[in-house]
Design goal:
Blueprint lengths: L1 H11 L6 H28 L6 E3 L1 H12 L7 E7 L5 E3 L1 H19 L4 E9 L2 H7 L3 E8 L6 H6 L17 H11 L3 E7 L3 E9 L11 E2 L1
Parallel strand pairs: 2-4, 6-8
Antiparallel strand pairs: 1-3, 4-5, 5-7, 6-7
Helix pairs in contact: 1-2, 2-4, 3-4, 4-7
């Protein structure tokens, strides 16, 4: 809270359009996200309802990217494939948390090597809509990192499961993602290959369509 409050105070003293003000805006956004992140994890662990409204997924993805860009090393290219899509009925903070968690995982999978992270937002294909029984939007996050073997891929959504060293990960990131998507009536598909990268595709129902059965599918 002190970081958020003092950054907002300093930002008010900076002229519009200056690089200093833009930097402070990034700090403010990151502070808000950190605050919301703790609140969302507490809500998730307590199985509390969250406030959902009509959300622009494309805008939420862009905001998450704006916050994350300064933390991504120059060796990793971020490829944006974000289209405008229908509104979804969701919690914007939780959706940004999903994007942040998946991009952070992708960054860690690439490590110190050259690589690419692709984030895409688009309408779901007719095939996907038929498969899940409704009208959906599609969020895709893919990386060219180390990839996963079949055994690891089958366990990625298990709470506390992690392949990272002690002290480098909690194993909660993807289980939180799964819980958020399930709570939004969404679906997750995962594909991965060792040495070639990993792809997460998330389908979320548009605001005026019926929510499909909750679950996740591995592709």
């Amino acid at each position: 809270m002190p970081i958020l409050a003092l950054s907002q105070l300093l930002m008010q003293q900076m002229p519009e359009g200056t690089s200093e003000r833009e930097d402070l805006e990034t700090v403010v956004q990151a502070s808000r996200h950190g605050r919301d992140l703790v609140q969302r994890i507490l809500a998730f662990s307590r199985d509390q309802e969250v406030v959902k409204t009509q959300v622009n997924l494309a805008a939420s993805a862009r905001q998450a990217l704006q916050m994350l860009r300064p933390t991504v090393p120059a060796t990793i290219l971020i490829n944006e494939e974000i289209e405008e899509v229908p509104f979804i009925f969701a919690d914007a903070g939780q959706l940004q948390q999903v994007v942040v968690n998946l991009i952070t995982n992708a960054q860690q999978a690439i490590g110190d090597h050259l690589g690419t992270i692709t984030i895409g937002v688009s309408p779901a294909s007719r095939r996907a809509n038929r498969r899940y029984g409704g009208d959906f939007v599609r969020l895709r996050i893919a990386d060219t990192g180390c990839g996963m073997d079949a055994e690891t891929k089958d366990r990625v959504f298990e709470p506390f499961f992690t392949t990272k060293k002690v002290g480098e990960g909690t194993g909660l990131g993807l289980s939180v993602v799964h819980g958020i998507i399930a709570d939004h009536g969404g679906q997750i598909e995962v594909s991965s290959q060792v040495g070639r990268g990993t792809e997460f595709i998330i389908f979320l129902p548009v605001a005026n369509s019926a929510a499909p059965p909750i679950g996740a599918a591995a592709a």
